Each structure stands twice: as C-alpha cells, then as structure tokens.
Amino acid sequence: MFVLFDGGKTARLCCFFFDRRPAVALIWIGQNCLDEAYVYGASKRYRVRLYRDQHLPPGGHLCYIYSDEQEHARTMAQFVESGLASGEKVAYLADVLSREELEQYIAKLGVNFPADLRPGQLIVPPAEETYCPDGTFQPERMIETWHSMYRQSVDEGFPGIRVTGETGWTCNEHPGLDRWFEYESMLNIVVEDVPFSSIICQYDANRLSGVNLYEVLRVHPLMIVGGQILHNPYYEVPAQYLARRRASA
Q1: 92: which strand partners?
Q2: Element containing residue 45 per DSSP (H, E)
Q3: Which tens digits make up the pLDDT trace of 101-133?
Q4: 51-248: CATH, from 3.40.1550.10, 3.40.250.10, 3.40.50.300, 3.20.20.140
Q5: d(CA 227, CA 246)
Q6: How confident is the model over 207-238, as pLDDT tens digits?
Q7: What angle, 0 to 180 degrees and rounded to 10, lies between the N-to-C axes of helices 102-109 and 69-85?
Q8: pTM (2 d.p.)
Q9: Does residue 51 have a pLDDT over 50?
Q10: In this predicted model, what pLDDT tens digit does every residue of 159-212 receive, in sequence order?
Q11: Strand, coil or helix: what is 17?
Q12: Cβ(93)–Cβ(163) below 8 Å
C-alpha cells in the first residue's frame, strides 16, 4: 500500500504483483472519505463505485484478496464480530490441518466474543474437509451443503447466517478442483434463492497466479480491498461466465 498526497487530497494505491508484474491496482481519492476508486488492468482503467454503506450488503457474494496477514486478521475478526453481535450464526471455514488447531486459529484472529454468545452460533469447520469430504470437490454437493447449513440456522432460531471460507487449501490436488470457479459463479445464483446475510471468499494474493486472480474477479460482484467494499467491474453474470467456461471445456 502506497499513500500519496496532492493538494490536500490523499490517494491510496494498492498493487498485487504476479511474476514481478503489477496485475491490479486500486486508487481511492478523497479529503475526509474515499470518493473515487479506479481499477487498473493490463490495458484498461475502470472507474468503479464504492459501496457507500460500508456495512456488508445483504446477500452479497464478495471476494477478499489480501496480501497482509495483519490486515487479514483484522478484517475477518470484524466480519465475525459484527455477525455475532447482530445475533447471526457465523460459519468460518478455516484453512487448518486438524480440528485441534481450530480454537487456536480463532484466538489468533483476535475475535472479541459477545457476552450472550449462543451455543453453536459460531462454527469453524476445517475448510478442506468441508469442501472435499471424500477427497474430491463437487460443486453441486458443496452448494447443497450451504443449503443445509442455512436450513439448520433457521431451525436453530438464528435471524441470519453469514459465511466465509479460506481457499489456501485449493493449492492441494483434489479431483474436481478444475470446476472451482464454476462453483464460485454458481454461488451467485444460490444467493438469489437462499438469503445468506453475506458470503466472503478469502484469497491470499501471495498464492494466486495472475490467471486465477482474474478468474476470482470474474465471479464476484463485490470485492474487499484495503478494507473497502467495491463494486467489481470485472464481474460476469453466471449465465455469461458459465457459458464461456463450458464452451471452452
């Protein structure tokens, strides 16, 4: 993150580098708030809208691309805390190797728990085990898992459920992972029918190739960068994205 000053205005420049070349950069300009945002691709510049109400949009499917672990922990702790404070159920699919690590993992994020935390309000299953219960990844099965999780939250009396999943485990080899971005696109159809409070998919920029970065952007209508929610100019609606993927298969 670089911070520049010009005539009383502040510009923040965030860059992700892949193969030593900048892939995406975002600039926010403003005196007391973030007024403008620009996304730079390989050959184009897009002006994009900031999501003015920085509360998460209901039913939003967001990607969170990060490169700083402290920022990552701070952002996700806020996501978990705000859900618990509003009485929602929160599912955090953590990229850990065993269930024994889960308690320590949440403590490491620095989450402050409300005094009235309900049993089962926060669940933290291992991500890889949840996405690939038999060692294979099947988008349709995972989508049914989300449906079941939502129905369970309703049965338990929670007013809503928000979910987030870490994706570092996708660097491992599992049959079916070639359909990962197809699955991400299909989630945009799911959130139209199942009223999740929000879904955040977490991606470590240090583990993403340039090609996969653009695939991440194509399947998420909103993105979080530098703690701000942006409307994503690279987003493709599922009908368009899935048709293109299947035509090239």
Answers
A1: 164
A2: strand 45-48
A3: 666 777 777 788 889 999 999 999 899 999 999
A4: 3.40.50.300
A5: 34
A6: 887 778 889 999 999 988 777 788 888 899 99
A7: 100
A8: 0.81
A9: no
A10: 999 999 999 999 999 999 999 999 999 999 999 989 999 999 999 988 887 778
A11: strand
A12: yes
Which residue bears the tokens 């994205």?
241
DSSP 8-state symbol, 55: S
**H helix runs in 132-197, sequence order:** 139-155, 180-193
Q: Is the pLDDT of residue 92 over 90?
A: yes
Residues with Cβ < 8 Å from 66, sequence gap 6 or more? 72, 75, 202, 203, 204, 205
For the chain, the domains span 51-248
Take residue 48 and report the two structure tokens written for it.
């994009």
- The helix or strand, by DSSP H or E, that contains position 131, with its residue range, turns out to be helix 127-131
Please indicate whether residue 183 or residue 37 has the higher confidence score (pLDDT).
183
Burial profile 112-150: b = 16 or more Cβ within 10 angstroms, e = fewer: eeeeeeeeebbbbbbbbebbbeeeebbbeebbeebeebb
Where residue 31 falls (left for φ over 0; alpha for ψ -120 to 50; beta otherwise) is: alpha
Burial class for 55, CB neighbours closer than 10 Å (0-12, 13-18, 19+): exposed
Q: Which long-range contacts (CB under 8 A, 24 or more apart) does 13-19 make?
A: 14/225, 14/226, 16/65, 16/67, 16/205, 16/208, 16/213, 18/208, 18/209, 18/210, 18/213, 19/210
